[in-house]
Amino acid sequence: MSFVSDLVKSVVHDVVQDMLKKATGKRARRRKRTLTAAERLNRIEKLLKPARKQTSRKRTVSSRSKTRRRAS
């Protein structure tokens, strides 16, 4: 009796574990929409265009200063 019950328990345990693993392991992936010709061209042009040069922090801060805003 003990041998049979141990065997049944182990089989049930394995089956339940396998079911739980399959239920939680997979996630649906979203497909990316394919680009149109115009979108593809825009992306390529954007990559080819040189990046804008970064302005200095000093210049940016001074252009945002309160005194300057009050004057205008």
Question: Mind explaining what this structure looks like?
Answer:
- The protein is built from 4 helices and no strands.
- It is mostly helical.
- The protein has one domain.
- The longest helix is centred in the N-terminal third of the chain and has 24 residues.
- The radius of gyration is 32 Å and the shape is elongated.
- The model has no long low-confidence stretch (mean pLDDT 81).
Number of DSSP E strands: 0
In terms of DSSP E residues, the strand content is under 5%
The oligomerization state is: single chain
Helicity, in percent? 55-70%
Characterize the main sheet: none
Keywords:
single chain; 72 residues; mainly alpha; 68% helix; elongated
Quick take:
This protein has 72 residues and is an all-alpha fold. It is built from four helices and no strands. The longest helix has 24 residues, at 2-25.
Map the helices and strands.
Blueprint: H1 2-25, H2 37-48, H3 57-63, H4 66-71
